[in-house]
Here is the input.
Amino acid sequence: MTSGQANEETRPGRPRNPAPAPANPPAGGIPSWRSRQLKRAFFALFVRPLILLVLGINMRRRHLLPTRGPGIIVANHNSHLDTLTLMALMPLGRLPEVRPVAAADYFLANRWLRFIALDLLGILPIARGGIVSNPIALCREALDRGELLILFPEGSRGDPERLAEFKKGISLIARSRPDVPITPVFLHGLGKALPKGSFLLVPFFCDAFVGEPIVYRDSGGPDEFMDLLERRFRTLAAEGNFEPWE
Here is the structure.
């Protein structure tokens, strides 16, 4: 060992073996005090007036919508307004415990999206494409902290007002915490008010129908759970007797 090597390895404040970068996406844990305050202010001053006054939401069975965790809200997904609408229905004091589950590669793609996703919405960023061996771990940890997750089992936003096939990730989360209540919410009209690819909001009549919660333990297995969840959504969708979108 040379004297130069010795000085380099023993220099104060310099780790001898730096830790590798974490594989999981960052910021999946408890939101900071600053993020909690930003989130409350964002929804009180901007989101709630927009959703509840400009759009207006016709709700059925709002009393079934949970306001605290642990729990999971699942909804159909046609618009970025879906997440904002569900969160706008929550008490402001509970918002920091409400965590939308979203794709890290999309919502952490640049500094502005990252600020909105982490500081204003408080998402749980899930890595896709095999980057992380167990992308469901963050969801389990959040449920164990007593948080309320928002999940869209269709995955990404689909065609306006058309239900797509549900992905099975929701059954994996539910199976890992079989007693956590899962509340289905059918949303209608938001896909037309702000469709995928548009940044222009069009005021439109929108609906949110809340169904009875289910728990995985009562379903009988993964396939039965998915069948039950999809049947609940078809029932909620039929309840509105909506005309097909042109």
About this structure: The first strand starts at residue 57 and ends at 60. The first helix runs from residue 3 to 10. The mean pLDDT is 83.
